[in-house]
Each structure stands twice: as C-alpha cells, then as structure tokens.
Amino acid sequence: MKEKEIMALANENIMNTYRRFPVVLTRGNGAKVWDINGREYLDFVAGIAVCNLGHSHPQVIAAVKEQLEKLTHVSNLYYTEPQTQLAKLLTDNSFADKVFFCNSGAEANEAAIKLSRKYAHENMGPDKFELITMKDSFHGRTMATITATGQEKFQFGFTPLLDGFTYVPYNNLEALESAISHRTCGVMLEPIQGEGGVKIPDENYLAGVREICNRYGILMIVDEVQTGIGRTGKLFAYEYSGIEPDIMTLAKALANGFPIGAMLATDKVAKAFIPGNHASTFGGNPLAGVAAGAVIKTVLREGILDNCLKIGDYFLSQLKKLQQKHAIIEEVRGKGLMLAAKLNIEAADIVNECLQKGLLINSTGGNILRFVPPLIITADDVDRAIKVLDEVMEVK
Q1: Sheet holding 338-343, edge to edge
Q2: Tens of pLDDT along 102-157?
Q3: Which of the four CATH numbers 3.40.640.10, 2.60.260.20, 3.40.50.12780, 3.30.450.20 does domain 59-71+78-301 have?
Q4: Which residues are part of the catalytic machinery?
C-alpha cells in the first residue's frame, strides 16, 4: 500500500485517540527509523522512552526468535522459565522481593493502587484507603490511574472519578506532610515527572518522602514506568536518592517495545495479594519475558548505563549552548537521557519542523520539548539533532 492509502485507511478504521504525524514508519535500526518512502529519521522519541536499546537490537531479536519456536503463550496458571528468570533478574537488581507481571504502565500502576489498598485494609484498617499523588503527575489511562494523575486535562469528560486520591505540589515535602490524614495509606510519585515536563525534584526530595512515609507508617510507591531500565543512567532512578520504596512500577523500556509491565514490592507488602486478588492474562508471557530478560542483561552488561550518563551530559551541555543562542529557550533540564527544553512559545511547530528535517522529537505540556532517545546514541547523533534544532529555531 502507498503512504496516503495507509493513512486514509487508518483514519477510517482506527479510533481518533492520537494526533498522528503524517508519516508511515516501516522499519528501524539503532537510533534510526525509515518511512514507507525510504526516508531516514533520527529517532529521539524511541516510542516515548520505550526503545532504550534502539530498534532491532540483536540480543532482543535473538531471544525472541528462539522463544517463538518454543512457546509463545500459556496461562499464568502454569510456571514458565522466561517469566521466572525475569522475576529473578528484577529482584536481584532492585529493592524488591516479589514481582507481578502485566502488559503496560497503566496496568502496573493499577496493580500498585490495588496492592496498596489491600495491604492497608489488612494492616492499617478499612478506613486507610487514600493515596496522595502529585500535581502534574501522570500514571496512566485507566479510571484509577487517570484519577491518580494530577492533571485535569487527562480527567476531563471522565467524571465522576474514583474516590481516595489527594493531590499535592511536586517537590514540596511540607505540602505532602500537611495532606496526610487518618485515611492516607500511601504516597505515589514519579522520581522525575515525565509527562509533567521532565521535572526533576531537589536532591533530598525522595529521601524526604521516604522519611515521612516511615514516620506515618504509610507506603511509598515509585512510578518508574518512564524512568526505569536505565533512562536516567541508573537501572532505576530511585537509586540516586539512597532510599528503597515499598512498591515500584515498570513498563515502557522493560522489553524494548514488547508489551509488558511489572509491579514490584517488598515481601511484606506483596503478601497482601493472594490467588484471586489480581491477574493478567498476557502478563509476563514467555515471549515478552525473554525480550525483557535480554534487555536487562544488555543494559547491565554492555556499558549502556555509562553511555547514557556520558552522552546525556554531552547532550545537556549542547542544549545549554543552544539556549544561549536562542531566546525562545527558557530552561533546559534533565538527567541521563531524559531531557527537556522549556520554551516561551508553543512547541508543536518546532516538533513538526524537526520532523520535516528528519528528526523525531515530541512535546509535552504545550511548551516543552522532550528528548528521550535510545540509550545507545552517540555524540554524532546528538550533534545531528542539535544542528536540526538550531536550524529550526533560527527562524523563530
């Protein structure tokens, strides 16, 4: 099919839930993708922080090919080796003792909300059911997770929302403590707010949240759907703070594009779930399991985290130089390869013009350019992206 035929057929048959760019992508390799006409693009979106190893990574491909010839899916009523090995990888490299597998970040956060309420019901009493979340947060698109999300634009049209959520400003420990009540069972937050505009808290913020949770005997839930699996230069962003949460959620980069999510918890908290409390038909199936296992092994063993820090620092420095040159850039910020440029104009035109010049980026919050490229990018890739941004901003 030709490009216009595909777009027309998609518009005719697929629900209008995305503002799609007028391009049909057909293949990818490393940090590059190609459209149906053979045009090359440098991909600094990476499926929105999903393809951390880039496209068509050989270890992931090899693992999936081998598993396809063995076993694609069976019910979670049975044990499988890929899921078991993946769970061991995750618990060996995190604070957690137990893992629940699902299919997405929203599902992982939904599971975390349910587990926190179940744990609270059994250990704190039935009146403890409320979670405190942060303004400008993003936790997913299910009814529970849009309620947890502290942005009205995601909630509009879906009221009444679920009961049991309170919002406080991000990076404000005083506001957090003031919001705790006799109903509070936990605090749910992102180590860095992604959809909120790549907002990075003060160095002591997560440690302060942990201390408050300890003092009031409530749970700390860390949403690492976007920050996890090396995005910030550590396997998990909470590691920078020196603390350990009670629950953590993962998805996006966990299997480099294969649908999988995970909710991790300490054994103390995980015990609240018993058979029948929660489930996921496809969660952690053998195919997604081997893909995720290959991703984690590659990230840990092949210098991916070091490259993320090195190239992330270089990218940030080049964005700061761009800021000095172009008055439309108010601020640049980020950690590892999760970076952003805050503009004093709407970002949509910049994104569209970069697309025309072969660079894929995206925006969030209206005026913020977000950069979440594969963690395997090089300095040359950064230079190419900066050149395009410079050219586009020159005429603004």
Answers
A1: 329-335, 338-343, 368-371, 362-364
A2: 999 999 999 999 999 999 999 999 999 999 999 999 999 999 999 999 999 999 99
A3: 3.40.640.10
A4: 138, 223, 252
